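Collaborator request, handled under Task 6.
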Amino acid sequence: MSTGSGADSAPAPKSAHDLTTSDRANKASEKTTSERATQDSCPRDSGTPASGTPASGTANSGTAIPDSDISDSGISDGAIPDGEIADGAAVERTTGGGTFSSLRIRNYRLFATGAVVSNIGTWMSRITQDWLVLSLTGSSAAVGITTALQFLPMLLFGLYGGVIADRYPKRQILLLTQGAMGLCGLALAFLTLSGHVQVWHVYLIAFLLGMVTVVDNPSRQSFVSEMVGPSQLRNAVSLNSANFQSARLIGPAVAGVLITTVGSGWAFMLNGLSFIAPLTGLLLMRQHELHKSVRVPRGKGQLREGLNYVRGRPELIWPIVLVGFIGTFGFNFPIWLTAFAHEVYDGGAGLYSFFNILMAAGSLAGALLAARRGTSRLRLLVLAAMAFGVLEIVVSFSPWVWLFSLLLLPIGMLGLTTNISANTSVQMASDPEMRGRVMSLYMMVFVGGTPIGGPLLGWVTDTYGARVGFATGGLVSLLAAATIGLILTRVVGVRLKVGLRGGRPHVAFVPKKEELATAA
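Structure tokens returned to the collaborator:
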């Protein structure tokens, strides 16, 4: 399960300089945070604002966000105020900080508990599905086609899923979608256990899962802040990723054991049954404790409205473009890891599962580090994406399996850092009534490119070898990150500043206007 929407907030900044890093912006943000802390520490009477109310003041259910709170260098957790919850919504709780702060909220605890069970089943199914297709066909391209079919619906219909997520109650949507995913898992289990499974069966079920995901993904993405509120959004997004990657540590290991002992069918069976956990968590939630969301009535032009909204905001469009390239070309790990395990290092399902466990360990570390950070920085997004591409190129030419395995750890960490930084930045810069459509576009670009990148890089891997295929994905990711960094310096009106801070190298995007003022 994934990331969120929330109560009403003021519109995200629209000017280019709202996106840029500067000492002025950081000082202003620190000043705002200091004022809030001062309010919290002062005794209150009935006329004193609540601790979640920013010093800038409120207007009904929405609060103006100071321009300095959202910048290119960071989107502060305090940028979207706690006091913006509409009448009749849940009362805001002060959960405090810390890596696991959002787990203090009961509804989110239920959500996260159900998610970790179903995520373990999902990872078991993914590993088993990839290995089953490879066993049936002997082709890396077939693995790529399976992955492409699962994500093709997101490319074709992803924006419609966002409209549905904005229009209907998200908890009810998730009850339907999670149940449908469980049924798909059970269908594949019965086909495999009966001995009648063929590759087209796997293709069909992968496509059906993709159709359900079109609605499930933006609904999950935008449901999290209804559970935790805007003040805990970044922490919850990071913990969702940590949850998913923790399951990735367990699922592949269990799948490897099941495949080699009792067969693939039982792995699919356990995946189907695992969806009972999130369904139970959703049913047990206290609906009166959910933060009231803005529901968009049915109307014409809502898809166009969402696209125009994103197009006019650089703080949304550039992270989405970057993750589009990374998702399309850099995240084709089922193709590469099966090929390296099977062809390069002459291993089997056990080695493939081991590679996935290492990737998960790195990703989990990246998610937990992200949960501790208080801001979403665009420079971190660009630099992490560049380092991710470089490491993919390096690992592709590793002559030894131990070195290949070792490098999978930082690749997983950097990949997750890139994803979380982009995801959180986009969510927190979006208005609540648009967040479902914005996140559907984000997910459409991130995973919807797989139907293009999967078969293409599968063909490259089959034709030129696993090493060339892996290196190609890394090269495209590196070039995309470098190009977007250059666009930020030329188009958005910032420059890359490299220097020392506290004796350590420091890289930041700063406004050109500030540079000229300093020179004068």
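The cover message to the collaborator said: "The radius of gyration is 23 Å. The first strand starts at residue 494 and ends at 501. Please let us know whether this matches your experimental observations."
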